[in-house]
Design brief:
It is a single chain. By secondary structure, the chain is of the alpha+beta class. A 3-stranded antiparallel sheet has the order 1-3-2. The relative contact order is 0.20.
């Protein structure tokens, strides 16, 4: 994970971090990659308005990494 200039966690993700993601990631990781806050990300997922494909698995949301990378113009 990157650190910001103040030594804390950076909110976004580097290109390298994005390309190393597994096939699906939790909503928190998807939010971080897109620069979305926790509340906004969950709100969009619940309304089926998340900017890329989200799977609902029981009580958990999973973001499809291929769709996330395509949205960010990083598709392989």
């Amino acid at each position: 994970m990157r650190e910001n200039e103040a030594g804390g966690r950076a909110k976004g993700m580097s290109r390298e971090e994005l390309l190393e993601l597994p096939a699906a990631v939790d909503l928190e990781t998807g939010n971080r990659a897109l620069g979305l806050g926790r509340s906004k990300g969950y709100e969009l997922a619940k309304r089926d308005q998340y900017p890329c494909k989200v799977l609902r698995l029981g009580n958990a949301y999973r973001v499809v990494t291929a769709d996330l990378l395509a949205l960010l113009w990083l598709a392989a």
